[in-house]
Design goal:
The chain is of the alpha+beta class. 29% of the residues lie in helices and 45% in strands.
């Protein structure tokens, strides 16, 4: 299990607005290349968006499903990149002054990533998620500065 925390200067509502927009995931999630389609009832639990993930020329088409949602505090996703694996990603937002403390927990639940779960893999996931949260912060800041939705 990899746990990544980061303080963002934007309020939880601004951060959650980016999380709730599935078309933005390829902009902030490291490794996401493209969002291909989104269920009409997103972000209802059970709804999904279809994505392409990968590194360099290697890519996999799969999907991410909403398991739980509590706007603007929490979202739980089941992110699939099969055959590499499936992970449960929990993103928790806690107000902190004028900003937000974000806690992102990623747990491999199926496939090779589950079998290979170890401190080295957890550190690599933490580094990727730290960079992803930095991108999330940038998108939330841009929306806050322009006053427009993310």
């Amino acid at each position: 299990m990899a746990v990544t925390t980061l303080h963002l200067d934007q309020p939880p509502e601004a951060v959650f607005a980016v999380l709730a927009d599935p078309w933005r995931y390829a902009q902030w999630v490291v490794g996401a290349k493209k969002v291909r389609d989104v269920d009409a009832d997103w972000p209802r639990p059970g709804s999904r968006f279809h994505h392409r993930v990968g590194v360099g020329p290697l890519s996999i088409d799969d999907s991410t499903v909403v398991e739980e949602i509590e706007p603007p505090r929490r979202m739980v996703l089941r992110a699939r990149a099969r055959p590499a694996g499936v992970a449960r990603v929990t993103i928790e937002l806690t107000p902190a002054g004028r900003g937000t403390d974000v806690r992102m927990t990623e747990v491999p639940i199926a496939g090779p990533t589950r079998w290979l779960d170890n401190p080295i893999l957890e550190r690599l996931i933490d580094l990727r998620n730290r960079r992803s949260l930095g991108r999330l912060a940038e998108l939330a800041a841009e929306a806050s500065q322009t006053g427009s939705p993310p």
